[in-house]
Design goal:
The complex is a heterodimer of chains A (about 250) and B (about 950).
Chain A (H helix, E strand, L loop, with lengths): L1 H24 L6 H15 L6 H8 L20 H5 L3 H21 L5 H28 L24 H31 L49
Helix pairs in contact in A: 1-6, 2-6, 2-7, 3-7, 5-6
Chain B lengths: L1 H25 L8 E8 L4 E7 L8 E12 L5 E12 L4 E6 L9 E9 L17 E3 L10 E4 L4 E3 L4 E7 L6 E5 L2 E3 L2 E2 L4 E6 L10 E7 L5 E9 L6 E7 L4 E7 L13 E6 L4 E4 L5 E5 L7 E9 L4 E9 L10 E6 L7 E5 L7 E11 L2 E12 L8 E8 L2 E8 L4 H4 L5 E8 L7 E6 L4 E5 L5 E8 L8 E5 L10 E7 L2 E5 L9 E7 L9 E6 L5 E4 L9 E9 L5 E10 L12 E3 L6 E4 L14 E7 L11 E4 L5 E7 L6 E4 L7 E9 L11 E4 L5 H24 L1 H8 L10 H9 L24 H9 L13 E4 L13 E4 L2 H10 L13 H4 L5 H18 L7 E4 L23 E3 L4 E4 H5 L10 H5 L7
Parallel strand pairs in B: 9-16, 35-41, 51-53
Antiparallel strand pairs in B: 1-2, 2-5, 3-4, 3-6, 6-7, 8-10, 10-14, 11-12, 11-15, 13-14, 15-16, 17-18, 18-21, 19-20, 19-22, 22-23, 24-25, 26-27, 28-29, 29-32, 30-31, 30-33, 33-34, 35-36, 36-39, 37-38, 37-40, 40-41, 42-43, 43-47, 44-46, 44-48, 45-46, 48-49, 50-51, 52-54
Classes of the chains: A mainly alpha (about 250), B mainly beta (about 950).
């Protein structure tokens, strides 16, 4: 486990720097498949709990029986997988971008608790958002006539102001947030994978939530997964017209 | 005083029983019962705060009292704490007391009451307790939310090893609630139906993020928890010591021990406090701190290092003498020098340790890894020992006094190491202002300051790495003034210039001799020499002095106020030389006997010696003697010439006199110094003019000028002259003709007055204008015009030999002229058409004109019938030279002799008809008769 983390950390650093440099130079990959593959790999990387959640639980001493099981995702904090699947591609990307923007903001507040991991994950998220931007441009250029979609919902409603929580509550809330983040990225990875599978599947099956046999996506950090709190649309086009794979 | 105290005590003793008795009897509350009791909860510190007052005290009365406080938990009967609180009470003074609860206050309601008793020595015991106050409840549970399970205290910060009581409050009232400390179940005491308490003894530090304690309902899944922040115990700093390497900065170090930093608490801070100076500094590092050594020569230091976090303070002190805590820095730049077979010189550098410190250096010589020699060398390191030698030069730049400050580098003896920089401090003496400090890095030797009209005091110090030198102070007056002093001369010798001066004031603190070390045409390299107050002479020597260069010395007197006043100016040459060049001589005022030489542009200041005068050489023509002011001399090329010596260097003009006219002279001017005269240049040659030419010029020129003036006047007054000299109608009385005739012919000749004439009737008959206009308007010659209208009678002289044209009188009567042309009347000279033009001849010549006139006149007379012409009017004809428009266009050579007669005269027919004779035909006598008609 430790060795695996050691391998993943440099990889994530390289990827983060790579994506950052891409964002800095504002050059986008023009090939849809390559870009989609990058997004999938990034989502797989970001759903890995060893990058953020596990260190946090360890540092905060939450890895004790009786506490660990309370570090669950808060329902509604992030869009569910079904909700993401129900969005059009443009809407999905917009929602993804907005959600990750809020995650970045929240991670900044966690800097005192996870200084190193927070910095690394921040780089990953910025690189991922850069690729989202490129994918958005690619889809827009291939489908100019696509009807504009209504503003997609953000990552859940803002909770009402509460009195300042104590350190114990803060630990649990942050732990749940991080787990929700990883679950969300797992769902994102699933949806992106379906984008790649859409060519080999029939148009009717394109929206199926079922995983294809032989899917090698990493197992998700979420247990259960019955998170249908997020609204979604069924009357959308997943595949934009233009030069997308047919 | 004692009597007053006894009286007061007696009064109180009498008063208190009386009041007690009264209260018992009247069932009233005890007058000294605590009132206005208020209780508040501080959950963070788990403390109950009480405040109350005692109103019943008299004004200015102070009593020592004891308050008994009871605290109950859950219910009033469950008293858990009783404490007597003693204090001094004043009227209306609010009293405070607090109590820390081991059990978190949120877990149980607390009730507090109190009573009081006078505990003053002035009142005999036993005292009486007052009644209890009513119970006051402090219940922090009211502020809890609606969660099913709460655990307290929240985020408590304790030291490692402490005992901590935690509790939970369950709103679901279930028994299956378990609590865990870092995952390990703990067991506690049930205090109430919904409250249980757990005592954690000797808690230990687990992590900086805190120790997690949580309780949960076994089936329901409700979870409550706290984070207990257990800090490591703050340790006393160990090995606290201070040392210095330069006597400027003390570096104190210590072993800080464990870091007590947590999420809840920052790491402990360290403060260094020095008791003698009263200063303190907050250290930026957890194990060392720098302290700037005071400049006031504090030797002993008593430092206290205070370590502090939220929970406690720890301190440690040391007392030491600064000089005993010196740790010299390692010497550097160790090099062998002058290595020979048996010896070598080693050089190295050391870091200085303050001022006036002595370092002992040990030099070890190793051979084959063993020390074979040891040498101890004592090195003294000081700040510069002398103030820099400072001088100034003042000038005005754009109306502002600008001061150039110069200083000399300190000698090695006084510098005590390398001078790093110079500090210039400018202080305004006229008005308070901030000091201006300039730091000028070495090796600069000057700076420039722009000041205003105020006076300034300038301090200059030289700094090495130890410290500053003593300050050199000069005072600059804002008004440089015009210090005009007389200039003198100074003689140069082999040793230099021996300059002396006369003191002016008795309070001089010194003198400064200032000069420039180069020629005047080069930028001044200011040099100066400071001299003591009793010095009145000095020898200025410099390797830069050169022969033939003029050096100007200024002697300043330094007053007690450190202000410099110019005393004298002196100029001198180390060795005078002969002038290197001669002046450019301008020659002027050349006459036949003299000329002037001038060389005013010649500067005597920039010569290689003091110019004593000039030699004027003059070469006269061969054989001629020298002018009186000259003396004969022989030039180096053996030629003989005249020489005149001017012994005043400021006289730069000379008049060479007593020369011969129309002679060639050569001159040459050269200056001379005490060494000799200038180089022998080429002579300039001049020639004196003719002796009279100038006289002629002197006469002719004024004459020409006068003529020009007269001509201008005549031109301007030409009208007046005409009236006077040749008027259009001449006055016969003034006529020169009259005088001429009178003198020559007939002295009785008179002029006829018009009044004497009897006018006849005059008939004007058809005068053809065209012929007149033609005659008047054109300037054709008479040969081309009708020559019948005007007629002139020339007054010819009687002399036979007279050949030129004489004066004439022209008569004209256009009316009768017309008639004459028709009726051959008198006085007209019609030109017959038959007359050939050559008979007329050109009328432009006087001979021709006269001839023509004679002929026409004779013809006209001959043609006049005797019976018809009894009186003939002859009008006057303007002379052709008179400028009249009717004049002849010809230009007779003697027009001035012609006179015009506008006045008509009657001519007797007898006279007119008389036959012309050879002598009288044209004479005036014939015309005027015997004087009957002339009055």
């Amino acid at each position: 486990m430790r060795a695996q983390r050691m391998r993943r950390t440099p990889l994530s650093v390289i990827l983060g720097l790579l994506f950052l440099s891409m964002a800095a130079t504002s050059k986008c990959l023009g090939k849809y498949h390559e870009l989609l593959l990058q997004l999938q790999r990034q989502a797989d990387l970001m759903q890995d709990t060893s990058t953020l959640l596990d260190p946090y639980i360890r540092i905060q001493g939450l890895d004790t029986p009786g506490l660990k099981e309370h570090c669950r995702e808060c329902p509604g904090a992030f869009p569910s997988e079904d909700a993401l699947r129900g969005l059009s591609r443009q809407g999905f990307l917009r929602t993804l971008n907005a959600t990750l923007g809020l995650v970045l903001h929240r991670l900044t507040a966690l800097y005192q608790d996870l200084p190193e991991a927070q910095q690394l994950v921040g780089l990953n998220i910025r690189g991922f958002r850069s690729n989202i931007h490129c994918m958005t441009l690619l889809l827009r250029s291939s489908s100019e006539a696509e009807t504009p979609e209504p503003t997609q919902p953000g990552p859940g409603p803002t909770p009402p102001p509460t009195p300042p929580s104590d350190a114990f509550q803060h630990k649990l809330k942050s732990c749940r947030f991080l787990r929700g983040y990883h679950c969300f990225m797992h769902s994102v990875g699933q949806v992106l994978r379906e984008w790649g599978e859409s060519r080999s599947r029939s148009r009717s099956r394109r929206h199926s939530p079922r995983r294809a046999p032989g899917d090698t996506a990493p197992s998700g950090p979420c247990r259960g997964g019955a998170r249908r709190m997020w609204p979604f649309r069924r009357d959308r086009r997943l595949m934009p017209r233009g030069h997308l794979p047919r | 005083m004692a009597l007053f105290a006894v009286f007061q005590t007696t009064f109180l003793l009498a008063l208190l029983p009386l009041r007690t008795y009264k209260s018992e009897v009247l069932s009233e509350p005890l007058p000294l019962t605590p009132e206005s009791l208020k209780v508040s909860v501080n959950s963070t510190r788990q403390r109950l705060h009480l405040q109350w007052t005692v109103h019943s005290l008299a004004y200015h009365q102070e009593l020592k009292m004891v308050f008994q406080i009871q605290i109950s938990r859950f219910k009033t009967s469950n008293v858990i704490w009783v404490e007597n609180y003693r204090t001094t009470v004043k009227r209306n003074r609010v009293l405070h007391w607090s109590w820390e609860s081991k059990l978190p206050l949120e877990c149980a309601a607390h009730f507090i009451r109190m009573r009081s008793m006078v505990d003053d020595a002035r009142i005999p015991k036993p005292g009486f307790w007052s009644n209890w106050s009513s119970w006051e409840e402090a219940d922090a549970q009211n502020s809890l939310g609606h969660d099913p399970l709460f655990v307290f205290p929240k985020d408590k910060l304790v030291e490692e090893g402490s005992n901590v009581t935690i509790c939970y409050v369950s709103r679901i009232h279930q028994d299956n609630i378990s609590c865990y400390l870092e995952g390990v179940q703990i067991y506690g005491e049930r205090l109430d139906r919904s409250v249980s308490a757990f005592e954690l003894k000797n808690v230990s530090f687990i992590r900086k993020k805190g120790t997690n304690v949580f309780c949960k309902v076994d089936q329901g899944g409700a979870l409550g928890g706290i984070v207990l922040f257990v800090s490591k115990v703050l340790e006393e700093p160990k090995d606290f010591s201070c040392e210095t390497q330069d006597l400027k900065t003390l570096t104190c170090t210590w072993d800080p021990g464990s870091d007590t930093g947590l999420s809840k608490q920052p790491s402990q801070s360290y403060t260094l406090f020095e008791s003698f100076s009263g200063k303190k500094t907050l250290c930026k590092h957890r194990n060392w701190c720098n302290w700037q050594v005071a400049q006031d020569s504090q030797e002993t230091y008593n430092f206290t290092l205070v370590a502090e976090n939220y929970l406690r303070k720890r301190s440690v002190s040391i007392l030491f003498n600064l000089t005993q805590r010196v740790h010299p820095m390692t010497p550097y730049n160790l090099f062998p020098k002058n290595v020979r077979a048996t010896n070598a010189t080693m050089t190295w550098k050391v870091h200085s340790i303050g001022n006036n410190s002595t370092l002992l250096c040990r030099l070890e010589l190793l051979a084959e890894g063993k020390v074979i020699q040891q040498h101890n060398v004592s090195i003294k390191v000081n700040a510069p020992s002398e103030a820099p030698d400072v001088w100034r030069n003042m000038k005005m730049v754009s109306g502002h006094p600008t001061v150039s400050l110069f200083w000399k580098p300190l000698s090695k003896v006084h510098a005590n190491g390398k001078i790093l920089f110079y500090n210039v401090i400018v202080e305004n003496l006229d008005k308070p202002s901030r000091l201006e400090v300039l730091s000028i890095p070495a090796p600069a030797r000057s700076t420039e300051l722009t000041l205003d009209q105020c006076s300034y005091q300038i301090h200059v110090t030289a700094h090495n790495n130890v410290g500053p030198s003593p300050a050199s102070v000069i005072v600059i007056s804002g008004d440089p003034g015009n210090e005009e002093v007389e200039s003198g001369r100074v003689n140069g010798t082999e040793d230099g210039f021996s300059v002396s001066w006369k003191p002016q004031s008795g309070d001089a603190t010194g003198y400064v001799v200032e000069w420039c070390d180069g020629p005047q045409d080069l930028p001044c390299v200011l040099q100066w020499k400071n001299l003591g107050p009793n010095t009145t002479s000095t020898v200025i020597s410099s390797g830069a002095f050169r022969p033939g260069v003029r050096y100007n010395f200024r002697i300043y007197e330094i007053s007690a106020k450190r202000m410099a006043h110019l005393l004298e100016k002196k100029a001198g040459y180390l060795e005078e030389l002969a002038p290197s060049d001669n002046p450019q001589v301008v020659m002027s005022n050349l006459t036949s006997h003299s000329f002037t030489l001038s060389w005013k542009d010649y500067s005597t200041e920039s010569q290689p010696g003091f110019i004593q005068g000039y030699h004027v050489y003059l070469k006269p023509k061969a054989g001629e003697q020298c002018p009186p002011a000259f003396e004969k001399t022989v030039l180096p090329e053996d030629s003989v010439c005249c020489k005149h010596t001017i012994d005043n260097p400021e006289q730069k003009t000379f008049v060479v006199e007593n020369l011969q006219p129309e002679s060639i002279y050569e001159f040459f001017v050269t200056p001379y110094t005490s060494v000799g005269e200038g180089p022998l240049d080429a002579f300039t040659k001049i020639t004196t003019p003719d002796e009279y030419s100038h006289i002629l010029i002197r006469i002719i020129l004024p004459m020409i000028f006068c003529v020009l003036i007269v001509m201008i006047i005549c031109y301007l007054k030409r009208q007046w002259l005409k009236e006077k000299c040749y008027p259009d109608i001449p006055d016969p009385y003034k006529s020169s003709v009259l005088s001429l005739i009178k003198s020559k012919e007939n002295p009785h000749l008179t002029i006829m007055n018009v009044n004497d004439c009897v006018p006849d009737a005059i008939e004007v008959i058809n005068k053809p204008e065209g012929s007149k206009i033609q005659f008047l308007g054109t300037r054709k010659s008479l040969t081309e015009t009708e020559f019948t209208k005007p007629a002139c009678i020339y007054l010819l002289p009687t002399e036979k030999n007279y050949s030129g044209p004489g004066p004439c009188i022209c008569f004209e009567n256009f009316t009768y002229n017309q008639a004459a042309s028709d009726f051959a009347s008198c006085g007209h000279f019609p030109v017959t058409p038959q007359a050939p033009p050559h008979q007329l001849g050109p009328l432009t010549s006087p001979e021709n004109l006269l001839k023509a006139l004679e002929q026409n006149y004779m013809n006209s007379l001959g043609e006049i019938p005797a019976g018809e012409a009894n009186l003939n009017y002859v009008s006057q004809l303007a002379s052709p030279t008179s400028g009249d428009k009717d004049s002849l266009p010809t230009n007779p050579p003697e027009p001035a002799l012609c006179s015009e007669y506008k006045m008509q005269m009657a001519i007797p027919l007898g006279l007119a008809s008389a036959p012309p004779s050879e002598n009288s035909s044209l004479s005036s006598a014939t015309l005027l008769g015997q004087g009957e008609h002339y009055r």
